[in-house]
Automatic annotation (TrEMBL):
Keywords in alphabetical order: Oxidoreductase
Enzyme class: oxidoreductase
Residue ranges constituting the Flavodoxin-like fold domain according to the UniProt record: 1-213
Known EC number: 1.-.-.-
Chain positions covered by the region annotation Disordered: 236-263
Entry annotated with the keyword Oxidoreductase: yes
Protein name as annotated: NAD(P)H-dependent oxidoreductase
Biased composition (Low complexity): 236-255
Native source organism of the sequence: Streptomyces sirii
Pfam families on file: Flavodoxin_2
UniProt family annotation: Belongs to the NAD(P)H dehydrogenase (quinone) family.
Length: 263
């Protein structure tokens, strides 16, 4: 594998930081290549603004048009272009972050906002049908991704009946709405629960789980999201009524339910 490890935690001494180090060591021991984007260490700017696109600040900023034009003409900000080069090189993306308020830290959300611009991450159209190529098809098709997240909550409370909601539902905007949207196949996430109250033995358990997930990552079956353009959705992009008539929301957009998030 050629792995881009995308890391978003402000403290290298944290459990997350230790697991990142263990994960990179594991990749190397199995002969994989990797590059790292440590967003806090890089002091990554998460804010979309006109200078990203060499855009005249006196003109109205239409982000989609400006970013697509800047990408096509090679005018993207150098920090954005550098991250796109890393992702182009990689066939696998590891996204590691603490679960804060049921989502990604702002610095990581800003990485996707700035890097996944039209023309680079999406924007293809099928010439035969005129339909956009997305949700299982797109510019990043062929790449794989896995989310690693630490949470203060216990594992059971991030399950189907837990008060915090099921982890795959919480990650749906990232796993389905960002990664699968652009064609990236997403394997089940790795949850490290109870991270802020971990016992001394917890690191060994978490590290062992991480090593096993990385060892099997090339052959792990992805989450079975529905493809947009293979007949499950009508021309208005609504799921046909005869498919998954009972579940609504995120559950309806899988062809098979995701496995439990705790290994």
């Amino acid at each position: 594998m050629k792995v881009l490890w995308l890391f978003a935690h402000p403290d290298q001494r944290s459990l997350s930081g230790a697991l990142k180090t263990e994960g990179l060591r594991t990749l190397e021991s199995h002969g994989h290549q990797y590059r790292v984007s440590d967003l806090y260490a890089m002091k990554w700017n998460p804010v979309v603004d006109a200078p990203d696109y060499d855009h005249d600040p006196t003109d109205r900023l239409l982000v989609g048009e400006a970013s697509e034009r800047a990408y096509a003409n090679g005018h993207l900000s150098p920090d954005i272009a550098s991250e796109q080069q890393k992702l182009t090189w990689a066939d696998t993306l590891i996204i590691q972050f603490p679960l804060w308020w049921y989502g990604m830290p702002a610095i990581l959300k800003g990485w996707f906002d700035r890097v996944f611009v039209k023309g680079f991450a999406f924007g293809l159209t099928d010439p035969a049908t005129g339909r956009p190529r997305r949700y299982g098809d797109g510019r990043l098709t062929g790449k794989r991704a896995m989310v690693i997240t630490t949470a203060g909550a216990r594992a059971a409370t991030l399950g189907p009946r837990g008060v915090n909601g099921d982890l795959n539902d919480l990650l749906f905007p990232l796993q389905h709405g960002t990664l699968w949207y652009t064609g990236v196949s997403v394997v089940p996430p790795l949850l490290i629960p109870g991270a802020d109250r971990a016992a001394p033995t917890a690191y060994g358990t978490a590290a062992a789980r991480l090593r096993e997930r990385l060892r099997t990552l090339p052959t792990t079956e992805p989450l079975r999201f529905r493809h947009q353009n293979t007949g499950d959705y009508d021309d208005g992009l609504l799921l046909h009524p005869h498919l998954a008539p009972t579940p609504t929301g995120p559950a309806a957009h899988y062809t098979a339910p995701p496995p439990p998030t705790h290994d």
